[in-house]
Amino acid sequence: MSINVTVGDKTYFPFVEKVSYEGADSDNPMSYKYYDENRLVGGKTMKDHLRFSVAYWHSFCGTGADPFGVGTKDFPWAVQQNPVALAKERMDAAFEFVSKMGIPFYCFHDVDVVDEATTILESEKRMRTMVDYAKEKQKASGVKLLWGTSNLFSHPRYMNGAATNPDFQVLAHAGARVKDMIDVTIELGGANYVFWGGREGYLSLLNTDMKREIEHLGRFLQIARDYGRKMGFRGDFLIEPKPCEPTKHQYDYDVATVITFLRQYGLEKDFRFNLETNHATLANHTFAHELQTAANAGLFGSIDANRGDEQNGWDTDQFPTNLFELTEAMLVILEAGGFANGGVNFDAKTRRNSTDLEDLFYAHIGGMDTFARALLIAHNILEKSPYKKLRAERYSSYDSGKGKEFEEGRLTLTDLHKIAIESGEPMQKSGKQELFENIINQYIR
Ligand code: XUL
Ligand code: CO
Predict the structure, then answer these.
(1) 24 CA to middle of ligand 2, Å?
(2) 379 CB less than 6 Å from ligand 1?
(3) Taking the domain 20-384, which CATH number applies?
(4) Per residue in 381-396, pLDDT tens?
(5) Least crowded by CB within 10 Å, which of 246, 265, 400, 444?
């Protein structure tokens, strides 16, 4: 992969040429200790297993601003006043970073790439310029688009929602933005198109017709799907659940809620899930729970990798470092068959006080190395440990005899009554949770 994708001789990250795998004994902080993109794990390279992606919004737009203070990060690519010139500089920086990291994908919302103009048509014109620019960058670097999405939550017009807005004019505006972003995603060869319902929910039920709003959301996604398919989009539409924040209650609360919604509106053949760690934990689920629930329904798609904070009840979007949590996640992902169109997108941001440009590298290196380790550990657990066998044994009474007949739907409640009387009190069988936990720990090495 060529790393010379900067315009002219301008470089934003002169302190590093290329981040490479050097192994766990290396003292070089600008190297991968575990992520070796060509290493085969179960016949597939780490690169193909993990399909890493950089989130444009956090890494190249997020200034570190929070409700208590303005931004802290002086990005050298954010000095231009003209929106398109600024957008081009930022894209130069983005492709330099992604290429130097050896990351195969990136993701963006429309407004991450270029600011909206005052009219829809003017915004689309700006975006066209940037699509041409991005095409060149993708070609020169080999970096691909994992997914595109439209930001339907930041602009004040969306304060009451986008597809669930009580005002049809706002819904129509959101539709125009989604139409353009689907076109952009197709043009850039995006593998997926994401819907995160940022303000699709309510702040108070008192002023909300919930039934009507959810019906509008279903209809909106149907016509977006129909448009995408008509225009030749073959990738997955992904829906990203989150229980709250910014709204008090979001309609795409968690995987179980969204499965019902997708089936109700006939969307389950075109949509899969984009699951984010910290959204799962905000819903009081583990990440593994959400992954497994999606996998059970055959709807697992992609992930937004990050971590929350044990004490804070908001979306802290920190880079993932928890090996036990990620090993549990990778166990589910591998058993579900791994990623097809999806990948591991770092929807994570460096802290407000991480103000050096090199911190962006350390953050991604840490996240990628943790995932690489979790992949190796989970693969070994599935291949070498008694984990799968122990779990299967807990259900062995359904493998034959009356248990099997029950699974096959051949027993009635009267049959159960008769069997129970004949068998007497069941023997106690241990769940052996501690043993399962020990196996995970044993393979973390
Ligand atoms: C917000 C979030 C979004 C989506 C894309 O919590 O996760 O960035 O991933 O809109
Ligand atoms: Co996300």
Answers:
(1) 30
(2) no
(3) 3.20.20.150
(4) 999 999 999 999 999 9
(5) 400
